[in-house]
Amino acid sequence: MALVTRRRVLRALGGGGLGLLAAGGLGTAQAYRFGVTRHARPLPGLKAPLRVVFLTDLHYGLYIGAGSVRAWVDAANAQTPDLVLLGGDQLDSRLDEEPQALLTELARLRAPLGVYGVWGNHDYGSFGRYGGRHYGPARTDWLAKRGVLEAAFANAGVTILRNAGRPLRDDLYVGGVDDLWHGQPDVGTALAGAEERATLLVTHNPDLLPELPQEVGLTLCGHTHGGQVRLPVIGAPMVPSRYGQRYAMGWVEGAHGTPAYVSRGLGLSGIPFRNLCEPEVTVVDLQPR
């Protein structure tokens, strides 16, 4: 399990790499300036067009505050989506209280088919499933904390799909799975009610893609941040994936020929900067096929 930490990234970059980053003006400008990426694809089983906005890896807490989330929500709403999906790692801090500022911003998301999300590995650190430098010691009550936060997100209009799914239209089903590292993902259960509908699956970690037990119409993933720090020619010195660069970012393919998109995400993990790896609000326009 390759966690992205400050020490790991700096070791991978080395002194020369850090000099290159400094010369290129690496810092908050690249870390907090985001873009909107647009994609169009057919989705088998769909009978009417569908616009999905995908927001992932917000990492609210250590380096990200409510102002950043507010800008991302504004950008998402400006796309007039039919559906908003959150790809996990919404949280990245020790949570002794509910993150009200984050929830207030997420409650502003507007989509007629709803807002759905999954948990990621840093969410589990925030629950207290494991300890860390900024999470403090592991909690014995992390399961209860997870339940409290799922209810808090639901009150803000965000339904967390933990190995669960929902029929959203006669032609559309969305499912979400638990985190690969700290949960127990179950794709079959998440998509059990899909029947003949077009299927969307959200998994935080793209390393689940080779293990998909069945074909899925489209899978959306986060987790890797595109490597977060990329260098000319060599790409990302470190990607938190057992498959290295294979699922670092962009359009990839999972088991059974399943198309998948791995977003570069929006927040920051391990280190408070990015390079050549712009944060993204992802818009996917899906058409019948």
UniProtKB/TrEMBL annotation:
Residue ranges of every copy of the Calcineurin-like phosphoesterase domain listed in the record: 50-226
Sequence intervals crossing the membrane: none
GO BP terms in the entry: lipid A biosynthetic process
Recorded superkingdom: Bacteria
Classification via InterPro entries: Calcineurin-like_PHP (IPR004843), Metallo-depent_PP-like (IPR029052), Metallophosphoesterase_sf (IPR051158), TAT_signal (IPR006311)
Pfam families: Metallophos (PF00149)
Gene3D superfamilies tied to this protein: 3.60.21.10
Keywords from the named record: Hydrolase, Metal-binding
Cellular-component GO terms for this entry: membrane
GO terms, molecular function: metal ion binding; UDP-2,3-diacylglucosamine hydrolase activity
UniProt protein name: Metallophosphoesterase
Originating species: Deinococcus arboris
